[in-house]
Design a protein that fits this description.
The chain is built from 17 helices and 17 strands. It has 520 residues and is of the alpha+beta class. The protein starts with 10 loop residues before the first strand and ends in a 12-residue tail after the last helix.
């Protein structure tokens, strides 16, 4: 049987106008200077190119070894089945946010065939591809791409310029995407140009907190008003009185300690905090009701069967709420001794089963408590925990666009690599670096600062920075300045932006400590 579709050459092209596909296919290659003419691109259209090479057969049983997530955007996939050959170019898969397994499933579904049918009759090849972007004819020359984007280099010294660029882009994205009633999109798919129906209150209140801090960093009536509107929206949507003078952040799936703590933090730091004094007092009472003599904190108001989930995150968020309430001298704050006791319970449990998710929130809480008390155990934990965390950051032997992220492939239970994770770890490391400098711990401070520079590189790599990152995006205002989840997953989530913004603000405005003995 003759193939019904055979790629016409070794070069994939996709003509795009304002991000939308006009025409695409495979051609015989030629000089870059002549490609626009060959494919018939107009002067106002961009052309995406992949020049394929290094084809190699892939046995069915080795599919996952050749076509794994980290290969997406670098490796293409050729599918041969019942006389038909179809190739999936790396940049096409990135732009469509299409993984290898899903691409094969769609191919088979369209032909009403099963995986078993494909195992009997199909064949696979993987290939590499040089990648280029030919912009519209406006004086800009061809751009060589790596995994569909341009590479960001880590700063050799200093990190404020990178942090400032990151902060400015995210801040502008938040202002552009804030609705009239104060909502920010929780999750947005650039490839589809649509918002996801998913939701998560914790991540929404992270954005409220980050907007409030941005308003302090960059005095701006527009930012302060955005912070007020966003907090009002989130509290109206989620805050509920749950009895006994307590308040909680209630979602369809339950009420979480972490959501109450982040909502409380967002209120304390908001320019309209007095407007929400009643909600703050009730949230504080709710958090107090989940304090636990054995584990430091329980994690769910309800349902009861979920209590204990996400303890590594929520216990630190609650302790940070307590510490910051105490630092402000609020009547809702527990005593510093009570904070210390809760920290000791949390630290004991952490040491029994260490998890990196515990580190950034408890680092911030302990840094705040040390600034208030000068107590040795708070500083020691910050330094020891962040020393341990450094091994999670990836650098050598990794694709250049992945360097600086936090992920341990030998411990997948710690979670996948993610923009939000990198941002959260940098929040803690920023406080750890400031503390190390204050204590004269120059070696440690240098190690943390290097990790911060590398982490900023990773976050800037994930940020939609300019037209070269958005050549496949039709609604660019919805993504410019936001962060992709990973270099091979372009979904935009509000917590990715919020954590990165909070980290950048901490780097630009480091925490201050009174002079303490250098032997703490």
């Amino acid at each position: 049987m003759k193939p019904r579709q055979v790629p016409g050459g070794d070069t994939w092209f996709c003509i795009r106008r304002n991000g939308s596909v006009r025409r695409k296919g495979w051609i015989e290659g030629g000089p870059l200077a002549g490609i626009r003419r060959i494919v018939g691109a107009r002067s106002d259209e961009a052309v995406e190119l992949c020049i394929a090479s290094d084809f190699r057969r892939v046995a069915h049983k080795r599919f996952a070894r050749a076509f794994y997530p980290r290969a997406c955007g670098l490796v293409g996939m050729e599918v041969a089945f019942r006389g038909e050959i179809v190739r999936f170019a790396p940049t096409h898969m990135l732009a469509a946010n299409l993984g290898f397994s899903r691409a094969l499933e769609r191919f088979l579904d369209e032909r009403e065939a099963s995986r078993d049918d494909f195992a009997r009759e199909g064949a696979l090849r993987a290939f590499r591809a040089e990648q280029y972007l030919l912009p519209p004819e406006d004086g800009r020359g061809p751009v060589e791409l790596f995994r569909g984007g341009t590479l960001v280099e880590a700063a050799s010294t200093g990190d404020t310029d990178c942090a400032a660029d990151l902060e400015d882009g995210i801040g502008q994205w938040m202002l552009r995407n804030l609705s009239a009633d104060g909502a920010l999109p929780y999750k947005y798919w650039p490839s589809r140009g649509t918002e996801s129906p998913a939701d998560n209150a914790i991540r929404r209140f992270l954005a409220s907190l980050s907007l409030a801090r941005l308003g302090e960093l960059r005095p701006s009536a527009e930012i302060r008003e955005a912070a007020r509107r966003n907090l009002r929206f989130n509290l109206a949507r989620y805050f509920r009185a749950i009895g006994g003078g307590r308040g909680a952040i209630v979602e369809r799936t339950g009420a979480k300690l972490g959501a109450a703590a982040l909502a409380g933090l967002a209120i304390m730091e908001n320019p309209a905090s007095e407007e929400f004094a009643d909600e703050l007092a009730m949230l504080a009472a709710g958090i107090e009701s989940l304090a636990d003599d054995e584990h430091g904190f329980r994690t769910f108001f309800f349902p009861a069967e979920r209590d204990g989930e996400n303890w590594n995150f929520y216990s630190g968020e609650a302790l940070l709420f307590w510490a910051e309430a105490a630092r402000r001298g609020l009547s809702i704050a527990p005593s510093l001794e009570r904070c210390a006791s809760a920290f000791e319970r949390c630290r004991e449990r952490h040491y029994r089963k260490r998890n990196p998710a515990f580190v950034p929130w408890h680092t911030q809480a302990c840094a705040s408590l040390f600034a208030q008390t000068g107590r040795r155990e708070f500083a020691e934990f910050v330094l020891e925990a962040n020393d341990w965390l450094l091994a999670m950051q990836q650098w050598d032997g990794l694709d250049p666009d992945l360097r600086g992220r936090f992920y341990n492939p030998r411990r997948p239970e710690f979670g996948p690599p993610h923009a939000a994770s990198t941002g959260a770890y940098l929040e803690g490391l920023a406080d750890a670096a400031a503390l190390a400098r204050a204590l004269g711990e120059t070696r440690r401070a240098s190690s943390y600062e290097r990790a911060i520079r590398r982490g900023l590189r990773s976050l800037r790599q994930l940020q939609f920075r300019d037209w070269r990152d958005m050549y496949y995006v039709s609604r660019t205002r919805r993504v410019l300045g936001a962060l992709r989840t990973e270099v091979y997953d372009n979904a935009v989530r509000v917590d990715s932006a919020a954590h990165a913004l909070l980290a950048a603000i901490k780097i630009l405005r480091p925490m201050e400590f009174d002079s303490r003995p250098s032997d703490v």
